[in-house]
Design goal:
Elements (H helix, E strand, L loop, with lengths): L10 H7 L4 H35 L3 H29 L1 H20 L4 H26 L8 H9 L1 H19 L2 H23 L6 H6 L3 H12 L6 H6 L15 H9 L3 H32 L7 H25 L2 H16 L1 H4 L3 H29 L5 H30 L2 H12 L1 H12 L8 H4 L22
Helix pairs in contact: 1-10, 2-3, 2-5, 2-6, 2-7, 2-8, 3-4, 3-5, 3-18, 4-5, 4-8, 5-18, 6-14, 6-17, 7-8, 7-14, 13-17, 13-18, 13-19, 13-20, 14-15, 14-17, 15-17, 15-19, 15-20, 17-18, 18-19
Length: 482
């Protein structure tokens, strides 16, 4: 048996009210670059598959299998590594996933045939799915609450940056090197950057919030004191210090099934919200790519070698959407930003019905990328704030996994609709149907959900079913007594 013992510490209050420090800048870069590398690896296949198809005489079905293997790997990695991040800590997992990524991305660069390429892609996808869980769980647990939403959004904006880098690097490499060499250098470049930033991530301490869940209070105090060292003497910081009195608690050793059970009972609405939002945005992202590759660009007779350029401009618009998201989550709040961005994403699909020229269709594609990036960045910020520390990475992993279902369904359904009718409008209707759950869920959260702007993670993720407002709820710090 373990005893119930109250803990009293102001460490998290100090962390929440701290001024911005150099540590926060380093953490933002270290996590953001990892997110960009995930995007680089996810998106590069679209630019290089034409080369692989020629080099290994691949069929269209084999190309689809390569995409499916990637998505399934991400699904498994998100859930598996998500639970491990809750069980064994954030730092171990965001180091392990980046190292795993670097090793298997290197293997991809040296793949000797189609089968070995599939194996290395699947293994790399496990790490990328794990990064989704580990990074999104970690990113909000360090930052001051006044900066948390904006900073989380900036980290997540690394995704369009990575996609732009992927398109740009592919275009340059195919211009400078023979195609059969250029694609290998592209994968090797991602692996090299991953191993370098592994060294940068080593300097990031374990999450104080996760440590507090384990009862390691002395370590929490030391980490927060080290971060605060450069902020000492700041009047606003010193005056903001206050003390939370945590309640007694019977600790429970985390287990995968117990986490899933708690997410499906006490936190089912919050985990359900995150999952629906992730499904909607993933369906739009992958559906829009399929729409461009299968319908828009072929009908406009765009050469395959020019595809990376169109994806580059789409991701430039996505980056702009990320910047808007970083501003809006703090300026107008999480709930309003969520509703506006998901609604815009669906509305951006409609102009494809009207435009019949390549510039018009590309503009509509860019508008979709702008809206969906703003949307999923806001969704990840909210999901990380409304799930408790002990379940955060597992819950985010579940939502990412459900999102990958949308990523698998969208290209299949869009392709089937287009091939069955021969009309692009039927594919657009399918895409709208897959996207609609997003704005509906955002509207429901806007009406009944709680605003988590400028509140602590403990307040925003207080026990589900507690009728008190977030600011009135007690903060609970569960831990194992000695």
């Amino acid at each position: 048996m373990t005893a119930e013992t109250p803990v009293e510490t102001d460490a998290l209050a100090r962390l929440d009210n701290m001024p911005w420090t150099r540590f926060h800048t380093t953490l933002t870069i270290a996590l953001g670059v990892g997110w960009a590398l995930d995007s680089f690896e996810t998106n590069i296949i679209g630019s290089i598959f034409g080369v692989l198809k020629t080099q290994w005489n691949l069929s269209a079905a084999q190309g689809s299998l390569a995409v499916s293997i990637w998505v399934v790997g991400m699904l498994i990695g998100a859930i598996g590594f998500g639970y491990l991040a809750d069980r064994f800590g954030r730092k171990r997992l965001f180091l392990a996933t980046l190292l795993w990524y670097g090793v298997f991305a290197t293997g991809t660069a040296f793949a000797w045939d189609y089968e070995s390429f599939l194996f290395f892609r699947f293994m790399t996808a496990l790490a990328v799915g794990g990064e989704y869980s580990a990074v999104t769980a970690t990113m909000g647990e360090f930052f001051p609450k006044a900066h948390r939403g904006r900073t989380d959004a900036l980290i997540l904006s690394g995704f369009p940056l990575g996609a732009m880098a992927s398109a740009g690097a592919s275009w340059l490499l195919f211009s400078w090197f023979p195609p059969e060499i250029g694609w290998r250098i592209g994968f090797g470049l991602g692996a090299t950057l991953a191993l370098f930033f592994l060294w940068v991530r080593r300097a990031i301490p374990e999450s104080p919030r996760w440590l507090l869940q384990q009862g390691r209070v002395a370590e929490v105090e030391a980490i927060v004191e080290a971060i605060a060292a450069t902020a000492k003497g700041t009047p606003a910081f010193e005056s903001a210090r206050r003390r939370y009195a945590p309640a007694s608690f019977m600790p429970v050793t985390p287990s995968f099934l117990r986490n899933l059970r708690e997410l499906s009972t006490g936190y089912r609405n919050r985990c359900g919200l995150a999952s629906v939002l992730n499904f909607s945005q993933a369906a739009v992202v992958y559906g829009a790519l399929a729409l461009m590759a299968l319908v828009i660009l072929p009908e406009m007779n765009v050469p395959a070698a020019d595809l990376p350029l169109y994806y580059f401009w789409g991701n430039a618009a996505a980056l702009l959407g990320g910047m808007v998201g970083a501003v809006s989550v703090e300026a107008v709040g999480r709930r309003t930003s969520l509703l506006v961005s998901y609604s815009l994403t669906v509305l951006a699909i409609l102009p494809l019905y009207a435009f019949t020229t390549l510039p018009g269709m590309v503009f509509s594609y860019c508008l979709m990328q702008f809206g969906v990036t703003w949307a999923y960045i806001t969704a990840y910020v909210i999901a990380a704030e409304i799930l408790p520390t002990r379940l955060r990475a597992t819950g985010l992993g579940v939502s990412v996994a459900i999102g990958r279902v949308g990523a698998m369904l969208a290209p299949l359904l869009l392709t089937f609709a287009y091939q069955s009718t021969g009309a692009p409008s039927s594919a657009l209707l399918v895409l709208i149907a897959l996207a609609l759950p997003g704005p509906v869920a955002a509207l429901l959260w806007r009406i009944w959900g709680e605003e988590t702007r400028n509140v602590s993670l403990e307040e925003g993720s207080a026990e589900a079913g507690d009728s008190r407002t977030p600011r009135d709820r007690p903060v609970r710090f569960p831990f194992f007594a000695a």
